[in-house]
Amino acid sequence: MRIELVKRKEHSHLMTVLSPLLAVVLTLLTAALLFALAGKDPMIGLYKFFVEPLFDSWSLQELLVKATPLVLIAAGLLLCYLSNNWNIGAEGQFVFGAICGSFVPILFPDFQTVFTLPLMLFFGILGGAAWALIPALLKVRFSTNEILSSLMLVYVANLLLDYLVRGPWRDPEGYNFPESRMFSDAAIMPSIGLGRLTIAAPITIVVIVALAILLSRTLKGFEIRVMGESPRAGEFAGFSRGRLTLFVFAISGGLAGLAGTMEVSGSLNQLLPVISPGYGFTAIIVAFLGRLNPFGILIAGFVLALSYIGGEAVQSSVGISDKISDVIQGMLLFYVLACDTLILYKPRLVRSRRVGTREA
Amino acid sequence: MFEAVLLTVITAATPLLIAAIGELVVERSGVLNLGVEGMMIMGAVVGFGAANLTGSGTVGALAAILAGMGMSAIFGLLVLYLATNQVATGLALTILGLGLSGLIGEAFIGVPGLKLPRLEIAGLSDIPFFGPVVFNQDALVYVGLGLVAIVSYVLFRTRAGLILRAVGDNHGSAHALGYSVLKVRFLAVLFGGGCAGLAGGYMSLAYTPQWVENMTAGRGWIALALVVFASWLPVRVVAGAYLFGAVTVLTFHAQAQGLGIPSQFLSSLPYLATIVVLVIISANRRLTLVNTPACLGKPFVPDR
C-alpha cells in the first residue's frame, strides 16, 4: 500500500479554504501530543495555549499588538512570493528599518514636533526598502541567489543593532546598560485609547486594503501574478522581470521597515540589542497560512500571534518552556504546506501489486 | 602561533565541509533543501545530549547523524511524496529545528560537554609542525575529508552516481528509463540530513563542547552558499570550507589583538564574505550554468 498523487483537473476550491483549517487542526493535535510527552495534561495545555488568551482583555490587546508587525511584514512577503522572489530576510529589513527610524529621536532628542513621528516612519520605510534592495539588486544584476543573500543580511543587521546600542547610541544616562535613550513623547506612536494599542493597527488595516486593491484591480497586481505563474508569458507581454524584482523587494522591505519602526516607537520606546522575537521569520508562516491572500494573512496573523501569547501563557501556568511556540510555528508551516498539496492533487491509495510494471 | 591558527581553521572548517558535502549530494539529485541550519542544530543538541547521557562521543556523533536524518525524512516525505514547495518546506524545517532544539536543549544549558578525543597516530603525530596539524585531529576531521573523496568518486566514477546526476539533471528521462526518481531523491535527502546532523554534532562535541541555543549561528546557510561556491563539485567544497574557516578564525584573532575594530563588525565578516563570494560566483555564468543540476528545485510527480 502506498499513496499516489493524482493531479486534479482544476484547483479544488473547497480545499483552498479547507486546507489552512485542516493544518491548524493537525497542529492542535500534534501540540496535544507534545504536551502529553512533556507529562502535562494535553487538554489543559491546549486550553491555556489556544483558548484562554482569547477571553482575557489584556491578552486580546497583546494579540493585536503582536499580530500587527506579523501582518504588515507578511503583506510585503506576499508580493515577493506571488512573483517568485524569495525574500526570507524580512527580519533584517525589520531591524534595519527600526535603526533608520530611530536615529531621529536618538540623535536629535530635542527635535520634538508633529513631524518627528512621520519623519521616523518615513526613514524606517526607506531603511527597510534599502536593506531589501541589496539582495534584489544583486539578483537582477548578477543573478545572485536572493534566498541566501537576504538571509545573510539578517545577521548583519542584528550585529549592527548590537553595535549601535552597546556603542555610539548607548544612553549616556543609562548606567552602561546596552540600550538607547528613551524616545520623547513626540517620537512615540499615539495610542488609540485601548491599552497598548497604537495607531499601528489601523495603519496595518489600510495597508492590507491597499494591497488587496493593488493585487486585484491594477495592472501591477496582474503583472505580479503573471510573472509568478508564468514568467515567459509575462516577458512576452512586455513585463520586465528585473524591474518587478526590485519593486516587490522594495515594497516588502519598506513594510518590514515600517513594522520595525512602529514596534520600536510603539512598544519598546527605545532601541534594545534584540527588538524582535523573530517576527520576520514568523511572517513567512503567516504569508503561507494566509494562502498568499491579503485578507487571509490578516486571519493568519492572529493565529501566529496567538502562538506567541499562548507560549508565554503555558510557561507560567502549565510550566512548559515558551520555546514550544517556535515548535508549534514550525509544525504549522509543515502542515500548511502538506495540506496545500490537496488543492492541486488528489491523494489515492494504491495497492503495490506491481503488475505490468517493468521496474518497481 | 601559525600552527595554532591552522589547527583552529581546520576545526572551524570541518562542520561547514561536512554539511556542504551532504547538501551537494542532495542538490545533485535535483532537490534544494534549505533546512540545513535546522538539521544541523538538531544534530548539535541531540549529539550533545546522547554523548552526555552515555559518556561516549561516538554515540553522540551517531545520534547526531540520526537526528539529522530524521529531520530530513520529514522534509523528504513532504517535498517528494506530497510535492510541496521546496523553498518553503526547507524554511519550515529550519524554523522547526531551531524551535525544537531550543526546547530539548533547555536541560543542557550550562552542562559541561564532552570533547571528542584527538586521534594520535603513533610516530606521525610527533613530526614537528606537520604532525599536530595533519595527524593529530579529532576523527571527524578525517571523516569529513573522507566523505568528500567518497562523494567525488561515487558521483563521477560509479553507476549509482550517474543515476543520481541523471535524476537531478532530467527527472523526466530518468523516470522514462525506469529509475525511481523519488526513491533516489529520498536517499539523497537522507544522506544530506545525516551529514548536516553530523556537522551539528561536530559543533557541540568538538568545536565548542557545550550546548548554546542557536549555536550553529547561520553555518547551515553558509554551507548552502558553499555548494553554490563549489559549483556543485565536491573538491571545491573543501577549498570553500577552508576559506570560510579561515575567515572565521581570522575574525577571532583580530578581536583578540584588539585592533580597535568593533567586535560586531568582525563577527559580521563571514556573512558579508558569503554574499561577496556568491556575487562573484553567480556573476560568472559559465561557471555556474555548466554544473547546476537542471532540475534543481523542481518538483516531480510521476504519472502513468
TrEMBL record, chain A:
Stretches that traverse the bilayer: 63-82, 94-111, 117-138, 147-166, 186-215, 244-262, 268-288, 295-315, 327-345
Principal subcellular localisation of the protein: membrane
Phylogenetic lineage: Bacteria, Pseudomonadati, Pseudomonadota, Alphaproteobacteria, Hyphomicrobiales
Localization, UniProt: Cell membrane
Protein's name according to its UniProt entry: ABC transporter permease
InterPro entries reported in the protein's UniProt record: ABC_transp_permease
One Pfam family this sequence matches: BPD_transp_2
Keywords: Cell membrane, Membrane, Transmembrane, Transmembrane helix
Bilayer topology annotation: Multi-pass membrane protein
UniProtKB/TrEMBL annotation, chain B:
Pfam family for this entry, one: BPD_transp_2
Keyword annotations of the record: Cell membrane, Membrane, Transmembrane, Transmembrane helix
InterPro entries cross-referenced by the UniProt entry: ABC_transp_permease (IPR001851)
Protein name, as recorded: ABC transporter permease
Chief localisation class: membrane
Location(s), subcellular: Cell membrane
Membrane topology reported for the UniProt record: Multi-pass membrane protein
Organism, scientific name: Roseibium aestuarii
Amino-acid biosynthesis listed as a keyword: no
Residue ranges of the TM segments: 6-26, 38-55, 61-83, 90-109, 139-156, 186-208, 220-253, 265-283
